[in-house]
Amino acid sequence: MQTDNCPETASQETLSPPEEVRVTGFRLELIHFLRRPLHGVREVLSEVSAGVAAEDFFRDLSEESKKQLFCQQMASVLPLSGRYTLNLSVSMLADAAFVEQILAQKLGRKIIIEIQDPGSLLRLNSVEQQTIFTAVKRLSAGEYQVWLDDLYPEHLYAWSRSGLIFDAVKIDCHLFRQFSQSAAVFARLVRRYRDAGKMVVVEGVESSEDYIICLRSAADALQGYFFRQEWRRLSLH
């Protein structure tokens, strides 16, 4: 798919020249599955120029720029083999036209959607939350897998109200560090997360010790620096 075939709401705008220069390429991080026959799944992460504070840069992007970046990521990985997870924010899911255009691409066998900021749901009223739940259901009905990224225990109740069981939920690196001091405590966290998702993916795996803790916890998949030799990069410049 070419960039001009991206959702119309995103293709109206492009990244401004300063933003375009700062996004230097995409890192394709392998997701290592332990118990399921899934191979070649990678998360697409944008990389920025040296000296640019990545967290601030992505936080300050306009909604249209975020959509355009999503389109650039999608266009970059479509010629490649394997499956790829792309990040969408809760606010992007609230744009029904954007969601419908994603559905129109019919790329569910290639693209997995990750909701990157599940905590944002807590700031919405009940009507707004229902709009998000409807968008997720539409994507799932369109054969897209939908994952929850960076899910924290305090987010679980709000998402459970949807009645949805996500294809995967992800434990981020900070939560992993907090709970992995005790293998038993971490295993309980993984079991709790299984109520929200069919699979539990652990981010921030950096060492063989981390790997063993996750293996014993019955997590389904791992991601992190430990697998850096299998990362790939796509340059934009």
From TrEMBL:
<protein>
    <recommendedName>
        <fullName>EAL domain-containing protein</fullName>
    </recommendedName>
</protein>
<dbReference type="Pfam" id="PF00563">
    <property type="entry name" value="EAL"/>
</dbReference>
<feature type="domain" description="EAL">
    <location>
        <begin position="1"/>
        <end position="237"/>
    </location>
</feature>
<dbReference type="InterPro" id="IPR035919">
    <property type="entry name" value="EAL_sf"/>
</dbReference>
<dbReference type="InterPro" id="IPR001633">
    <property type="entry name" value="EAL_dom"/>
</dbReference>
